[in-house]
Amino acid sequence: MTGVIVAGAGPTGLMLACELRLAGVDVLVVERLAEPNGRSRAGGLHARSVELFDQRGIAERFVAAGRPGPFAHFSFIPLDIRDLPTRFPYALAIPQAQVERLLEERAVELGVRVRRSAEVVDLRQDATGVDVRIAGERGVEWLRAGYLVGCDGGRGAVRKLAGIGLSGTPATLTALLGDVVLTDPPADVVFGADSRREHGSVMIFPADVPGLHRVITMEFGKVTERDSPVTLDTLRQACLGLGGTDFGMHDPHWLSSFSDAARQADRYREGRVLLAGDAAHVHFPSSGQGMNLGLQDAVNLGWKLAAVARGQAPDELLDSYGAERRPAVERMLDSTRAQTALWRPDAQIEALRGVFGALVGSEEVNRALGGTCTQLDVRYPLGDGSPALGRRMPDLDITSPSGHTRVFESLHAGRPVLLDLGGRPGLRAALEGWTDRVDLVEARCEDDFWSYPVIGDVPAATAVLIRPDGHVAWVAPAAPAADAVASDASAASLGSALTRWFGPARGH
Ligand SMILES: Cc1cc2nc3c(=O)[nH]c(=O)nc-3n(C[C@H](O)[C@H](O)[C@H](O)COP(=O)(O)OP(=O)(O)OC[C@H]3O[C@@H](n4cnc5c(N)ncnc54)[C@H](O)[C@@H]3O)c2cc1C
Fold first, then answer.
1. Which residues form the FAD-binding domain (predicted)?
2. With 0-12 CB in 10 A as exposed, 13-18 as middle and 19+ as buried, what is 505?
3. CATH number of the domain bearing residue 240
4. Is 150 a pocket residue for ligand 1 (Cβ < 6 Å)?
């Protein structure tokens, strides 16, 4: 029996498979396509995604393959993200196909098995596992696994087979995408605000494939069936209707459609079946969030599912995945709804864009929207005690007995870290029952304050418990007495955080 079957070798499925394998789980990725098709919907990664790669020591691969740019926006109203407190204060332009290639390389390095031409077509679960029916070039067969995660995209089968509904707001527009040859292309790229037309917008820019242009049309008020076929003629008519020219388009290499329906799965888990990425949520690609959301889902779920699959943590730990990710995703769905509203072709909306654009000029608004757009401001509901609780741990420069390092380097193995910056002997004792699962890092840090996007500087803590996804699960009490962590109350609060997230102490 396989530990975990992941359906779908998109960015979410591959990242999840890497996380599971890093934690020692036997994982099989099944992918419907015979080989990567090289088609990129997404064109970029935001700062938090690059940080996630940095937490695993692979950020350089993506940065080297991409192009950093000051390109972040809210409904194409520019956001200045250069001052955000991260080592990656930019948007990284990198085609989705490259992201998938680099993730698949990493997955194979880690020992993930990837099986292509294998489509999930049915499933049955019981108390001890899931039977997954796979159809492909080997015919039809049933494979058994401890868990199945549907990372099979917005049109995937797993959510429906698991009986999980999708709720949210319906489509109000139709968007078409075509990678086509243009005989008569515009002299310059047509993107962002320049693309706005009376009834929608037409964007045109060079596609990843030399010789092709990507044409994206948006027709407001026109709603088509989700799976209605897109032809060259549909795209041509949309262009003609919106802008009066079809730029002499011909030879389509890829045609697709999408909409502003913003919905998410009613729950991210049904027993032993879980959902992540577009399989769990769909929305308009305003400010390029979907792939980034999927990567964050994968990193939130990976260590939890690994601990449960290995029998080190109780099954309920898996419920925290949906409890944390659903509200974070809902915020992003609202952001895309707001951005679509601001894009609507209408004189009053045009006025609103002007007002909104002026507001974005204020530092506070710019920082708030920048924090959301880069997904650096995500805070999971882990308690209110300290502003650090539930937020991502900043990547501080620290000095450990072995020399200079960074917090993110201590997370490369994908294990939780108890970071002691105060030289407290009591911490080591409090961690005693968890040393097989949690690393203790004793270090010094020069910073008196930690900088966060949006909330700004907060006083540095003397010790924190960092989950493998980089989020802080426990903070030592502020301004402690010399022996505070050794005190019963602090040791108890650390002990309950360790138990909650990483299972009971050894021997209990
Ligand atoms: C025009 C456009 C621009 C975008 N730009 C951005 C951007 O700049 N940044 C960003 O973050 N996001 C962007 N997105 C969104 C992004 O492309 C998606 O959110 C992302 O692809 C989701 O990744 P995923 O792995 O969850 O799903 P997918 O990429 O859809 O991967 C799912 C995989 O599962 C496979 N599969 C499907 N069904 C089965 C089955 N039954 N069995 C086995 N395998 C199956 C599929 O073949 C596929 O390989 C954009 C989207 C669009 C439409």
1. 2-335
2. middle
3. 3.30.70.2450
4. no
* Whole-number pLDDT of residue 227: 79
Tokens of 281: 């949520």
Shared-domain flag, residues 144 and 285: yes
Please write the tens of the pLDDT for every residue from 80-107: 999 999 999 999 999 999 999 999 999 9
Structural domain of residue 411, as residue ranges? Answer: 391-502
Kindly state whether residue 507 falls inside one of the protein's structural domains: no
Are 160 and 190 part of one and the same domain?
no
What atom in ligand 1 is closest to the CA of residue 278? 26
Q: Does residue 130 sit within a domain? A: yes
The 3-class secondary structure across 7-72, one letter per residue, is: ECCCHHHHHHHHHHHHCCCCEEEECCCCCCCCCCCCCEECHHHHHHHHHCCCHHHHHHHCEEECCE
382 inside domain: no
Q: What residue owns the CA closest to ligand 1's atom 15? A: 290
162 and 178 in one domain? no
Based on the fold, state whether residues 183 and 232 are members of the same structural domain.
yes
Which residue type sits at 155?
R
Residue 277 CA to ligand 1 center (angstroms) comes to: 8
Write the DSSP assignment of 254-311 as a string of letters.
EEEEE---EEEES-SEETTEEE-GGGTEE---TTS-HHHHHHHHHHHHHHHHHHHHTT
User: Are 123 and 209 part of one and the same domain?
Assistant: no
Whole-number Å distance, alpha carbon 297 to ligand 1 midpoint, is 13
DSSP tag of 224? -
Identify the pLDDT of residue 508: 76
Whether 13 and 119 map to the same domain: the answer is yes
Confidence (pLDDT) at 489 = 66
C-beta 282 within 6 A of ligand 1? no
pLDDT the model gives residue 412: 98
Domains of the chain: total: 3
Q: Which class for 194: exposed (0-12), middle (13-18), buried (19 or more C-beta within 10 A)?
A: middle
